[in-house]
Amino acid sequence: MYAIVRAGGRQEKVSVGDVLIIDKVNGEAGDSIDLTPLLLVDGETITSDADKLAKVTVKAEVVKAEKGPKITIIKYKNKTGYRKRQGHRQPLTRVKVTSIES
């Protein structure tokens, strides 16, 4: 059994035991969060109806908070001496899917 869930602005294919890295969610390590299911595949049965998906719960456990890779932003204007350098690391959260219940 697997599900397609909305997590951090993207859609992810998950099954029980999968570890995902998604955009930051509030919560400490060990906290449980619910992910929104968009599609559920259970053997031969495919569920995409919104009314039936409202009864499906996909639970995940927060493993730890992380940061993404460093991205360097450089702005430069010719002949004016203007240079600006900036860095960014996106806050992320590592979660482990614990259950998919329909």
Automatic annotation (TrEMBL):
What GO molecular functions are on record for this protein?
rRNA binding; structural constituent of ribosome
- Pfam families, per the entry: Ribosomal_L21p
Record field: transmembrane: none
Q: What keywords does the record list, in alphabetical order?
A: Ribonucleoprotein, Ribosomal protein, RNA-binding, rRNA-binding
- List the record's Gene Ontology CC terms alphabetically: cytoplasm; ribonucleoprotein complex; ribosome
Report the superkingdom from the record.
Bacteria
Which Gene Ontology terms describe the biological processes this protein takes part in?
translation
Q: What does this protein do?
A: This protein binds to 23S rRNA in the presence of protein L20.
* Subunit architecture: Part of the 50S ribosomal subunit. Contacts protein L20.
Q: Which family does it belong to?
A: Belongs to the bacterial ribosomal protein bL21 family.
The record's section on HAMAP family has: Ribosomal_bL21
Which protein are we looking at? Large ribosomal subunit protein bL21
